[in-house]
Q: What sequence folds into this?
């Protein structure tokens, strides 16, 4: 439900509270299919709104703190930088968040899955766009054609208050499973239509349908943002009241979207890694099976016997006169009474040398037969290992399980000709790792000696160093983030709290600073350090390492 109209409606209201009175800082794209809209709130805080394009599983999430555009990033809609935000509202007609700007312009965040975009509208004309700029600039922007205009919430409210109107709109519907019969419910996507059918008890009774619709509508007006997981481990998001599997209730829509987006990103990353590994395993299996099919020891044995026979027959026919330089016909000494045999010769050498050549070919063929038998045994062993790995891959659903699988099977993967994936290679594999975003990774020490290596051998001076304050625990190093990226620091602090002696506390203080302000002391044992210029954040410990 992350792209549902009502999810975005409540998101727009929460963004209005944060952004109204602030200003646009910059808009850029650093990751493929991502737009980052950076704002400064009225309170002076930095807030990033990240739109995800062409990914139906993702839509929009926010990050606290500043993340300046990098050199090679695309600078977009630069003309509205430092423009004041007058307000944020949801379009009454479709999934578009409207950001009002000083001067009367509007920044439209179009959040359709297939054509998500951000563009600037001035006096009803699109003047700039982040994507498809050449196609959009100069065109008239209409939220909805006048003859199709339908205020989604107002229309649903009328239906929820008028049972007779609702029943008349159903018309000749065959039943709740016929989703086309509910096209008169604007803003209801497939997920909500399924929920409506389930609550109606799977029948077309008008009273059941009306009561189910009314309950869902009022839940949408007073949502309960929550995240969960399917039995297969795929993250879920809902704003309806019934709890999801492994439900975690969130205090706001933005918090729910942020938690869900972080979880689904990790799940997608895992799915991509699994897909690549599964493809490689299948390719290796096909290659081995093809080679095994081409192995035929009987033909090789027959060829070796034939070469040896030709050699013996030539040795027994040395007395014959050669009438042709390319062949000779000799009697079959091994089968008297049978037809004579014609043997191909090399014209430039004698019969005895040709016989020796045939004996060499027979010996070489027998050696090849033995080598192929050994090769076949090796291939069958590799095939068994690959089939076992493929079977084990099917059960992996979380980033943690994939990482553990790769680390545990590095030797097997190399032994079958598959290079070790990047996630399990390099010096960073010595530490626990958590991927917080495509560009930000948290490294966690495993023990005192490992903490020492992480902090003083692996970390760079401008990396962010974290540790639970006043408690024993792991050193943590955050790479790819700056001190202004508060959201990434908060997530990293949750993992630092989890890997500390205070992991069972409700709230844990976690200190963080740049690694260059962390130093050793000769008086302290390995793993203990002196920290300067630290800041402290209170967080709830992460529930798992994903």
A:
């Amino acid at each position: 439900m992350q792209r549902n109209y009502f999810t975005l409606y409540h998101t727009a209201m929460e963004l209005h509270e944060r952004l109204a009175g602030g200003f646009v800082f910059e808009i850029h794209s650093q990751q493929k299919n991502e737009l980052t809209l950076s704002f400064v709130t009225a309170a002076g805080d930095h807030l990033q709104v990240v739109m995800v394009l062409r990914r139906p599983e993702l839509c929009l999430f926010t990050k606290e703190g500043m993340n300046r555009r990098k050199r090679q990033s695309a600078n977009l809609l630069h003309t509205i930088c430092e423009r004041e935000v007058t307000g944020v509202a949801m379009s009454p007609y479709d999934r578009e968040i409207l950001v009002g700007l000083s001067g009367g312009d509007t920044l439209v965040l179009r959040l359709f899955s297939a054509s998500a975009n951000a563009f600037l509208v001035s006096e009803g004309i699109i003047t700039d766009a982040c994507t498809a700029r050449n196609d959009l600039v100069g065109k008239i922007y209409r939220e909805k054609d006048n003859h199709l205009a339908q205020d989604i919430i107002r229309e649903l409210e009328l239906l929820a208050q008028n049972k007779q109107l609702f029943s008349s709109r159903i018309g000749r519907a065959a039943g709740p499973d016929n989703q086309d019969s509910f096209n008169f419910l604007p803003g209801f996507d497939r997920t909500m239509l399924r929920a409506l059918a389930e609550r109606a008890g799977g029948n077309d009774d008008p009273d059941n349908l009306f009561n189910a619709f009314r309950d869902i509508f009022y839940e949408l007006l007073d949502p309960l943002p929550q995240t969960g997981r399917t039995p297969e481990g795929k993250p879920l998001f809902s704003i309806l009241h019934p709890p999801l599997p492994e439900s975690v209730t969130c205090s706001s829509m933005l918090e729910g979207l942020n938690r869900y987006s972080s979880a689904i990103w990790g799940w997608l990353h895992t799915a991509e890694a699994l897909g690549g590994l599964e493809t490689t395993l299948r390719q290796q299996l096909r290659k081995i099976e093809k080679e095994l099919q081409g192995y035929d020891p009987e033909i090789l044995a027959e060829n070796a016997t034939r070469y040896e026979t030709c050699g013996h027959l030539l040795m027994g026919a040395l007395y014959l006169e050669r009438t042709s330089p390319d062949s000779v016909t000799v009697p079959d000494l091994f089968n008297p009474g049978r037809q004579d045999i014609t043997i191909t010769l090399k014209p430039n050498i004698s019969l005895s040398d040709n016989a020796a050549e045939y004996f060499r070919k027979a010996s070489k063929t027998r050696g090849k037969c033995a080598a192929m038998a050994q090769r076949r045994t090796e291939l069958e062993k590799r095939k068994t290992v690959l089939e076992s790995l493929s079977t084990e891959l099917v059960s992996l659903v979380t980033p943690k399980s994939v990482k553990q699988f790769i680390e545990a099977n590095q030797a097997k993967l190399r032994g079958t000709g598959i290079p070790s994936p990047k996630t399990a290679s390099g010096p960073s594999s010595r530490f626990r790792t958590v991927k917080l975003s495509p560009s930000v990774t948290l490294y966690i020490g495993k023990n005192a000696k490992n903490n020492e290596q992480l902090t003083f051998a692996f970390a760079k001076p401008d990396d962010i160093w974290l540790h639970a304050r006043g408690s024993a625990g792991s050193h943590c190093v955050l790479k790819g983030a700056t001190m202004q990226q508060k959201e990434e620091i908060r997530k990293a602090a949750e993992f630092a709290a989890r890997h500390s002696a205070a992991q069972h506390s409700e709230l844990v203080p976690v200190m963080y600073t740049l690694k260059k302000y962390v130093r050793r002391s000769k008086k302290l044992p390995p793993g203990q350090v002196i920290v300067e210029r630290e800041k402290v954040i209170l967080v709830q410990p992460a529930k798992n390492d994903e």
About this structure: Residues 172-177, 423-427 have pLDDT under 50 and may be disordered. The first strand starts at residue 23 and ends at 29. The CA atoms of residues 23 and 83 lie 5 Å apart. The chain has 13 helices and 23 strands.
